[in-house]
C-alpha cells in the first residue's frame, strides 16, 4: 500500500516541517512501507518548487531504511526532470510522474513526456500516474519498450473494466499495478490485477488501511468489504463535489485528533461546520 502523506501548514502558512515529520513517523510506526511525498493528498499543485524539495528532503530523511520513497514529480518537463534528479540525489529509489495537466495532451506526447523523465534518471524506478481514460494501454507498452526503468503504474481512472483491459494491453506482468483511487476502488481493481493501492485515509488510520490490504492480498474479499463499509462515508465526503474536499477531509480528521492544523491552500477550502463534526465523529470511531 502506498501512503500519500499530507503536507501540514503552520499558522503563518508555511510548511510545518516538525508536524510533517511527526506524521511521517506515525505512518512508519504504523507499519507503512511506501511513502509518496508530493502526491495530490500532499497538495502537490499548491506547493512552491522550494516547498516540494523540502517535503522530499524531510520524507527521505525520516524514512531512512524503514520505507521506500516514491517522490511525486511533474509540471513542465524541465521542472519534472529537475525534481526527479533531486529525488535521485537524495537517495530516493523511485519517482511517480503526475498526470500531465496541459489541456492538449496527445497519446504520443504522453509517451514523449514520460520518456524524457525516465531517461533523465535511468537509475530510478518510474511510475506513471494515469488519470486519462483516453490513453490506450499500447502507449504504456511503447514507453516501457524505450525505458526499462518504468516499473509500475498508478492507475486512477474510475472504471475497473477499463483498468482490466488497459493492464492487459500494456502488459499485466510487466508492471506493478497500483489502484490509484484508494480504498473505495481497491477491491474491484485487485480483482482485475492490481496488487496495491494508494491511500490518503492512511494518514488518519494506518491500521484500517492495512487491514484492507491484508484482506485483499489473502484473497478474503468479504473481509476487505467489511473495511470498505467502515470507511465508506469518510471516502464519500472526500469524493463529494468532484473530490473538492479530498485533502480537506483528511486534514480535518487529523486536526480533530490533534495531529496537525486543518489548513489547506486554495483551490481547496475548509469544510463547513456540520461536516467538520461528522468527520471528527468518524475519526473518533476508528481504532487509532
Describe the protein:
This protein is an alpha/beta fold and 288 residues long. The chain contains eleven helices and eight strands. The chain has an eight-stranded parallel beta sheet. Strand 2, helix 2 (49-63) and strand 3 form a beta-alpha-beta unit.
How many beta-strand elements? 8
Strand content: 5-15%
Element-by-element helix/strand order: EHEHEHEHEHEHEHEHHHH
Q: Uncertain segments of ≥5 residues (pLDDT<50)? A: none
The total of helices stands at: 11
- The end-to-end distance, rounded to whole angstroms, is 18 Å
Rg is 18 Å
Offer a concise description of the structure.
Keywords: Lyase. Helices cover 51% and strands 11% of the residues.
Q: Which descriptors apply to this entry?
A:
288 residues; globular; 4-hydroxy-tetrahydrodipicolinate synthase activity; Dihydrodipicolinate synthase family protein; lyase
